[in-house]
Amino acid sequence: MPLAQARHERLGKAVALAVFASDPLSSVAYATEEILLVLILAGHMALSYSLPIAVGISVLLVIVVTSYRQTVQTYQQGGGAYLVSKDNLGVIPALAAAAALLTDYVLTVSVSTAAGIAALTSAVPALRPYSVLLCVAAIVAIALANLRGVRESGRIFAVPTYFFVASILGMVGWGVISAVFGRLPAQPYEAHRPGLEGVGLFLFLRAYAAGCTALTGVEAVSDGVPVLKPPEGKNAATVLTWLGAISVVMFLGITYLAFDFGVVPGPDETVVSKIARRVFGDSPFYYTVQIATLLILVLAANTSFADFPRLSSILARDRYVPRQFANQGDRLVFSNGILILSGFAIVLVVGFRGDTHALLPLYAIGVFISFTLSQSGMVRRWLRLREKGWQWRVWINGIGAVATGIVMLTLAGTKFLEGAWIVIVVIPLLVLIFMVMHRHYEEVAAELSLEGFEPPPPFRHTVLVLIGDVHRGVVRAVQYARSLGGPDVAVRGVFVETDPARTARVEERWGKWGLGVPLVVLTSPYRSLLRPLIDYLDQIQSRGDDMMVTIVVPEFLPRHWWQHILHNQTALLIKGALLFRKNTVVADVPYVLKK
Amino acid sequence: MPLAQARHERLGKAVALAVFASDPLSSVAYATEEILLVLILAGHMALSYSLPIAVGISVLLVIVVTSYRQTVQTYQQGGGAYLVSKDNLGVIPALAAAAALLTDYVLTVSVSTAAGIAALTSAVPALRPYSVLLCVAAIVAIALANLRGVRESGRIFAVPTYFFVASILGMVGWGVISAVFGRLPAQPYEAHRPGLEGVGLFLFLRAYAAGCTALTGVEAVSDGVPVLKPPEGKNAATVLTWLGAISVVMFLGITYLAFDFGVVPGPDETVVSKIARRVFGDSPFYYTVQIATLLILVLAANTSFADFPRLSSILARDRYVPRQFANQGDRLVFSNGILILSGFAIVLVVGFRGDTHALLPLYAIGVFISFTLSQSGMVRRWLRLREKGWQWRVWINGIGAVATGIVMLTLAGTKFLEGAWIVIVVIPLLVLIFMVMHRHYEEVAAELSLEGFEPPPPFRHTVLVLIGDVHRGVVRAVQYARSLGGPDVAVRGVFVETDPARTARVEERWGKWGLGVPLVVLTSPYRSLLRPLIDYLDQIQSRGDDMMVTIVVPEFLPRHWWQHILHNQTALLIKGALLFRKNTVVADVPYVLKK
Question: If contacts are CB pairs under 8 Å, which of residues 521-540 in chain B contact chain A?
Answer without folding.
Answer: 524-531
